[in-house]
Design brief:
- The complex is a heterodimer of chains A (328) and B (505).
- By secondary structure, chain A is α/β, with parallel strands linked by helices.
- Chain A contains eleven helices and eleven strands.
- In chain A, α2 links the parallel β1 (30-34) and β2.
- The two termini of chain A are 28 Å apart.
- Chain B is built from 22 helices and two strands.
- Chain B is an all-alpha fold and 505 residues long.
- In chain B, a hairpin with a 4-residue loop joins β1 (183-185) and β2.
- The radius of gyration of chain B is 23 Å and the shape is globular.
- The termini of chain B are far apart.
- A two-stranded antiparallel ribbon of chain B has the order 1-2.
- The chains are: A alpha/beta (328), B mainly alpha (505).
- At the A-B interface, α3, β7 and α7 of A face β1 and α20 of B.
């Protein structure tokens, strides 16, 4: 029940937050907590927001990025959980908030935090080496015909990349050996060096090696193609990548990028951040970033956000259960 | 000549007033930590690392590497004047350096030490300049089995080539490997040895352990031994410097040999400590009058210093190109790179050219500037040691605590650091070497991941470590080094029987 009361509060606060509304404001530097290592997708996004807020004077206090990527991001979750009532810390979350408590039994529940807003959805793409098969069909056939299973690189174990690999196996009948690396960057390098046959990196993680012509995108795990049509390589744009469904492999997965405050903050404090991140999504920095990293724009807050989170949680839970990744 | 153009570009990146000032600040800080007993290169860099977090990566690494050069120069000062090696690899420098100081030839010894440091580093930097681009394309060949083979080589060479008793090296290394396992296991996605504590989730930070093991334990030892810090007056006049330099060409064989040993050991992870001893021992072995070593012979300063610095510098090459640190300080610099979002590895040379060549250019400049700086400021730095220990010790402890806290902003880490201080003290007392422990702590996780990824990829077949020429030769070399003492003894016996046969025949 606490959640819905909060959500109503947030929605009401959002309606009231006109410029004349003299609400709460941070009085010390705001820490933006990143649940991943330096240079990863979350870190890059946090630095983009830091720059957007600073350049457009959206907040009087400075914003500092604080990397808490230890234990595959669990460090950040526990840090937020223990910061109850502190309105100067804001977490940039992704699907680990559903998955880590299930796979590693981390004593954490996102419902204990205060939801602020969902600011983007991240895509997943199936990639192979540019010397490898050219289409999904050729790739699947080659994987089935191979004497040893194809190696699929990914980030972490029993997480998004691993789940996608399991579903790819189920839908195609091909077998993969999943290699959990420490970061998407490492998974990209290993694919370039031909140590793995494929990976399911986010667009941002493989962007540079794609532009260098070292890897090839085979399909994107979404209902529709990515909307961005400007050329990324000499010949291709993000919109040129077919969906996996078009290619006959019906696997879909999108990952949220959302902001959370610690638990037990006041509705005024929550309202301030809802407004702040709403303004961020209006900036040129945010729009550039979304296009460059091929992210799907979205802005959800209040009741809509809670509903989204509950549904997303249920989806992730069923995927994790089906893949056999829930710790007993 | 591509390297030459890139290097010039590197100098262009570097030659701004801001970077030059940072360079000087770094060198002075470095000499300072090098002179303080118990600190030295790795600790100095570790403690000062968080200071650079707000800088851009190029400035930060320039400053850090200058701290490093400064510490290397500074370490020689205490070895020669006070018989306190500021660094483990300065130990060999005390053998002849301290006797020279006692004979009133301190200035000569210091000049020799600084000059040979400069030469050793210069040779190594030249090597990096011309080999680095080659190494980076070579590095893409490294998948999990290759990485594991390299880690194995490092561990084996510590056991096989180390001077300490083998079982103690193995004990120390095993403890390090055990502690490296604390926290999240990437391969299974499960927590290990955290005992429900959220502080242990992060795992045990390598830098926190190093600050405790080396810094705090040295303070404990010094307190116990009531070390009186009394130094010999030292001043360097231009005349002495020139007379030492005039004699340099006479020792070209020693200098060249030590540079070679240093570069080789720096690139194949063996460590600068081994290099300095090997340089000293070989100089002694090839000298016409070996018995004059240890009584104040200038060659006894040239040989270990050149080797130590050549290896300390060339250790940066595998760190940059492969992400594998060749020395303790390189390991700390590696951690720094990751903090700035630079992933050391094959693509670093491609994606961050400015950074890499800026760093290499800073090695040239840092060395030249450092040499001038130490030659002119020795008397000032030496006077630090006239400050009573009771005043210096608390300062060192406080700086250690700040350093440990700042790495992850965690109070828990200060307790951890103190705990490691006691562990380090006990280890030193019972003669267990600390280097294998820290090596295992920093590489243990990666070695384990690389091994398990290789096994997943090959379906559990160990033959993957001999599946191609590259991985096969590294793995074989590792096994050879592990059993090197046995092989060496065997070869010695064969040679002996051969000689006796020849003599009798």
């Amino acid at each position: 029940m606490r959640i819905s009361v909060k959500a109503v509060g947030a929605a009401a606060a959002l309606l009231l937050s006109a410029p004349a509304f003299a609400g709460w404001e941070p009085t010390k530097p705001v820490e933006i907590v990143v649940a991943a290592g330096a240079g990863g997708a979350s870190d890059q996004m946090a630095r983009m927001m830091q720059a957007a807020i600073q350049k457009n004077n959206l907040m009087k206090q400075p914003m500092v990025v604080s990397l808490k990527g230890g234990a595959s991001g669990a460090e950040a979750l526990m840090y937020m959980k223990s910061s109850e009532g502190d309105p100067n810390k804001v977490l940039i979350a992704y699907s680990l908030i559903y998955m880590l408590p299930l796979s590693a039994k981390i004593p954490f529940n996102w419902r204990e935090l205060t939801p602020v807003s969902v600011i983007a959805l991240d895509q997943f793409v199936l990639w192979d080496n540019s010397a490898g098969p050219k289409t999904v069909k050729e790739f699947v056939d080659a994987a089935k015909a191979a004497s040893a299973p194809f190696k699929m690189g990914g980030t972490g174990s029993k997480r998004e990349d691993h789940v996608l690999t399991v579903f790819l196996e189920q839908k195609t009948g091909a077998k993969f050996s999943y290699l959990p690396y420490k970061s998407g960057g490492e998974a990209a390098t290993q694919l370039v060096g031909n140590h793995t046959e494929s990976n399911v990196n986010n667009p941002s993680e493989n962007l540079e090696v794609w532009r260098a012509g070292q890897v090839r995108p085979l399909c994107v795990f979404d209902k529709e193609r990515i909307a961005y049509t400007s050329k990324v390589t000499d010949t291709q744009s993000w919109a040129d990548i077919p969906t996996c469904k078009e290619e006959g492999v019906d696997v879909q997965y999108l990952m949220l990028r959302a902001m959370f405050l610690p638990g037990k903050v006041t509705p005024e404090q929550q309202a301030f951040y809802v407004e702040l991140f709403h303004k961020v999504t209006q900036t040129a920095e945010y729009k550039d970033y979304m296009e460059k990293q091929a992210l799907k724009p979205i802005f959800l807050t209040g009741k809509d956000m809670v509903q989204f989170l509950e549904e997303d949680d249920a989806t992730n839970r069923s995927l994790m259960t089906e893949a056999g990744f829930v710790a007993k | 000549m591509e390297a030459f153009g890139l290097l010039l570009h590197g100098f262009a990146v570097l030659l701004t007033w801001k970077t030059l000032v940072l360079m000087m600040v770094g060198l002075v800080l470095g000499i300072f930590v090098g002179v303080l007993p118990g600190l030295g290169g790795p600790n100095g860099v570790a403690i000062l690392l968080p200071l650079t977090f707000t800088m851009d990566p190029t400035s930060a690494i320039v400053m850090l590497s200058c701290i490093y050069w400064g510490a290397l120069f500074g370490g020689a000062i205490t070895s020669i004047l006070f018989n306190i090696p500021g660094e483990a690899w300065s130990v060999a420098t005390t053998f002849d350096g301290y006797p020279m100081a006692q004979q009133g030839r301190a200035a000569e010894a210091l000049t020799a030490a600084f000059t040979s440091s400069f030469i050793g580093s210069l040779v190594a930097v030249l090597l990096i300049t011309f080999l680095a681009p080659m190494i980076s394309s070579f590095a893409l060949k490294f998948g999990p089995p290759e990485f594991f083979a390299v880690y194995l080589l490092t561990f084996c060479s510590f056991v096989g080539l180390g001077r300490e008793a083998k079982h103690k090296t193995v004990i120390s290394m095993s403890l390090g490997l055990l502690l490296a396992g604390v926290g999240m296991d990437t391969v299974s996605g499960q927590l290990r040895m955290t005992f429900g504590s959220s502080e242990l989730l992060r795992g045990i930070n390598f830098l926190v352990a190093v600050i405790g093991l080396f810094g705090i334990s040295e303070i404990l030892l010094t307190m116990e031994e009531r070390l009186a810090l009394r130094g010999h007056a030292a001043s360097i006049s231009l005349r002495v410097v020139l007379s030492v330099w005039k004699d340099l060409p006479k020792y070209w064989v020693t200098l060249l040999r030590s540079s070679f040993i240093g570069c080789w050991l720096g690139i194949t992870p063996g460590g600068a400590i081994a290099a300095s001893f090997m340089g000293y021992n070989l100089a002694k072995r090839f000298a016409k009058d070996p018995e004059s070593f240890g009584k104040g012979r200038i060659e006894g300063v040239f040989a270990p210093e050149t080797a130590a610095h050549a290896s300390g510098t060339s250790a940066l090459l595998p760190m940059l190109a492969l992400g594998i640190p060749g020395s303790g300080t390189a390991a700390i610099l590696l951690g720094g790179l990751m903090v700035w979002g630079l992933n050391p590895g094959p693509l670093l040379f491609v994606e961050h050219k400015d950074f890499v060549w800026g760093l290499i250019a800073s090695m040239y400049l840092g060395n030249v500037v450092g040499l001038v700086l130490v030659l002119t400021t020795v008397p000032i730095f030496a006077s630090i040691l006239r400050v009573p220990f009771a005043a210096v010790a608390p300062m060192i402890v406080v700086s250690c605590a700040i350093g440990a806290y700042a790495i992850q902003n965690a109070m828990f880490d200060i307790w951890l650091m103190l705990g490691f201080g006691v562990v380090g003290y006990v280890f030193k007392k019972i003669g267990i070497p600390l280097a294998p422990f820290t090596l295992a702590l920093v590489l243990g996780n990666r070695a384990e991941d690389a091994f398990r990824l290789s096994m997943i990829g090959s379906g559990g077949d160990l033959k993957v470590f001999w599946s191609n020429g590259l991985v096969g030769s590294i793995a074989t070399l590792a096994i050879v080094l592990l059993f090197w003492p046995l092989i060496d003894a065997l070869l010695g016996r064969l040679a002996l029987t051969g000689r006796t046969k020849a003599a009798s025949g």
